């Protein structure tokens, strides 16, 4: 992820799970400091300052979608069949989205592809 990249905001614990908004990466990735804190729920004993295990980026909110795009709806779109989000066993924290997938989802949402 790089500064300026678009991001879909996905609500995994909503009913239904859905893409609900768009954001933009505003700061390059940097080590997540919680990985070094033994008191943190996100502590990672394998992480060192020289070889961090977790990274994070900062994002700026761009817009809420007028209508969230449910996982069920996305699964019904032929052009999205290979999308990482729709594959079984995927972690939902950060996943790649191809340029074509971005365009298809923005078209479904009725929003500009520019962020």
**How is the main sheet built?**
3 strands, antiparallel
End-to-end gap = 14 Å
Oligomeric state of this protein: single chain
Globular, elongated, flat, extended or rod-shaped: what is the shape?
Answer: globular
CATH superfamily: ph1033 like domains
H/E element order: EEEHH
Determine Rg (CA atoms, Å). 16 Å
Q: Helix/strand-derived class?
A: alpha+beta
- Please mark out the parts with pLDDT under 50 across 5 or more consecutive residues, or reply none: none
Assign the CATH class.
Alpha Beta
Q: Helix fraction?
A: 10-25%
Count up the domains: 1
Q: Judging by the overall fold, what is the CATH architecture?
A: Roll
CATH topology: ph1033 like fold
The percent range for strand residues is 25-35%
Q: Count helical runs.
A: 2
Task: Please give the number of β-strands.
Answer: 3
Strand order of the largest sheet: 1-2-3
The overall average pLDDT, rounded, is: 93
How are the elements arranged and paired?
Blueprint: E1 6-11, E2 18-31, E3 55-70, H1 71-75, H2 99-109
Antiparallel strand pairs: 1-2, 2-3
Outline the structure in words.
The chain has 115 residues and is of the alpha+beta class. It has two helices and three strands, in the order βββαα. It has a single domain (6-109), classed as Roll (ph1033 like fold). It has a three-stranded antiparallel beta sheet. β1 (6-11) and β2 form a beta hairpin. The model has no long low-confidence stretch (mean pLDDT 93).
